[in-house]
Amino acid sequence: MDLNDIVVFTKVVETKSFTGAAEQLGLPKSTVSRKLAQLEERLGVRLVQRTTRKLALTDIGQAYYERASRIVSDLAAAEQLVMDMQSTPRGRLRVTAPIDLSTLFLGGIVADFIAQHPEINVELDATDRVVDLIEEGFDVGIRFGQLPESTLIARKLATFEPVLVASPAYLARRSTPATIEELEDHDKVLFLPSTRTQGWTMVNGDQTYELTPPARFSSNNIMAVRDAVLAGAGIGSLTEFMVACDIREGKLVHILPEWRGRKTDVHAVYPARQNIPPRLSLFLEHLGKAMNPPPWAMRGPCG
Questions:
Q1: Rounded mean pLDDT of 77-95?
Q2: Helix, coil or strand: residue 153
Q3: Is 33 part of a structural domain of the chain?
Q4: HSE (CB half, 13 Å, CA atoms) of 254?
Q5: For 146, which of 47, 98, 111, 128 is 20 to 30 Å away at the CA?
Q6: pTM of the prediction?
Q7: Tell me, what's the pLDDT at 300?
Q8: 63, 84, 105 — which closes off a domain?
C-alpha cells in the first residue's frame, strides 16, 4: 500500500480536477494522473470516471473515498500532534466565523494572537454557511444563536441584541418616533437572511413588537442593510456589535432604546478530542479574553 497514492486520490476528489490536486500537492499534473492510475491498477477497479470536461466518482470510488479521506485526515492530525508536542506551539489553525463578525472584529483579534505566537498560522474562513468542522477540516468555528445537538464542544463567548437605529439625516427628514407604534409611519430597512425569516421581534419587558415586511429596503446581506441605514434609507434593526461604533461616532442614532431584539449568544465550537492541540487551547483562551467584555461594548474610540 502506497499512502502517497491515497493522498493524491483524495485530493483529486476534493479539488475535482488533476490540475487542482497538482497545485495543492506541489506535484506535476502528470505525476498526479500516474499515481491515481497506479492506485486503480493495484485495486483492480475504476475509482474515477474521466471525461474531457469533468471527473466523477464511481460507486466504488465513492465508498473508497469515504474511508480513505478519514485515514488521510487522521494522518494529518497525527503529524500535527507531533508538531504540537514540541516546546513551541506551531502549525496551522483553521477558523470559520460569520462574515459580519469577521469583518468588524476578528481581523484585529487574530492579528493580536499571531503577534503573540509567531509560529502559529491562522486561516480565517469568513462565511455565513454552517460549516461541517470535521468534514471540512476546521479546528474551531464561531457561531451565533442556539446550537443544535451535536458532538461538538461549545464555549460561550458573548451575547448581543439587535437595536433600532437610523441616520441623523433620516430622522431630521422624517422625525424621531416616540413610541414603537409610530414605526408604522416610517420606512423600514430589514435584514431577512432567508425566505423563512418574516421579520424581527423587538422586546420591551413583557411587550413584543414585530418588525415585518413590507419594508422600504430588505436584503439577506447584513452589511448591505447597515449601509442602507447609514445612507438614510430608513429605520433598521441591527445587531449592536454592527452599529456600536456608528452610534458612538454619531453616524447612527439609537432610537427607542427600551426596545431591543432577542438576545443571541456567540459560541466557539470545536470537535471533541481527547487532547486539544496547544495552538487551539491558546486561541480559545485568547478569544475568550478578547470577547469579555465584547469589543462592541467598549467605550473607547473606534477603528
A1: 74
A2: strand
A3: yes
A4: 18
A5: 111
A6: 0.65
A7: 53
A8: 84
